[in-house]
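ARCHIVE CARD
CATEGORY: sequence design from structure
SOURCE FIELD: tokenized fold
FIELD CONTENT:
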């Protein structure tokens, strides 16, 4: 009997806190990546970024075609020119190639910066809506159930539809 009592008392202390915690903490989940990807503002921002990227791509292709045309023209005319002119032309082609590479790097950096500048306020808007809905529904924790997130089993309340209503879509 005494051994049973010694076993029962620690078990009681272990079970009691779990029952108290489960009765007080409310947990919900949401796929944040899915929410953000479905936001109308995000879709519009992605279209704008794609349009800008297409414009830069067209500019780069045009410049590259110009480089190819000059290279072919200079190669065909190389035998009729002096060594000094051929060297000058070669340097011109190298400078154009370097300019194209620098332009590609600048475009890549600019697109990345523009993407961050456009997306950050939208991500913050989604987070604020999640926070607002979590408070309205009385949840203590909202877990991200996106792929690679920390939720293994999502049996709690999914607040996706509530947050979409809050965001107006």
């Amino acid at each position: 009997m005494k051994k049973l009592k010694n076993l029962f008392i620690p078990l009681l202390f272990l079970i009691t806190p779990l029952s108290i915690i489960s009765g007080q903490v409310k947990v919900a989940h949401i796929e944040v990546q899915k929410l953000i990807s479905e936001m109308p503002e995000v879709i519009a921002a992605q279209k704008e970024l794609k349009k800008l990227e297409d414009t830069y791509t067209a500019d780069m292709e045009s410049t590259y075609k110009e480089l190819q045309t000059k290279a072919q023209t200079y190669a065909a005319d190389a035998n009729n020119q002096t060594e000094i002119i051929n060297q000058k032309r070669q340097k011109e082609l190298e400078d154009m190639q370097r300019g194209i590479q620098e332009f590609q790097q600048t475009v890549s950096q600019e697109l990345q910066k523009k993407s961050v500048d456009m997306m950050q306020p939208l991500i913050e808007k989604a987070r604020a809506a999640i926070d607002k809905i979590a408070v309205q529904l009385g949840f203590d924790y909202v877990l991200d159930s996106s792929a690679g997130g920390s939720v293994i089993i999502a049996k709690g309340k999914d607040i996706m539809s509530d947050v979409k209503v809050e965001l107006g879509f």
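CARD ANNOTATION: Residues 25-167 form a domain with the Protein Binding, DinI Protein; Chain A fold (CATH 3.30.910.20). DSSP finds five helices and three strands in the chain.
SHELF: design records, drawer C
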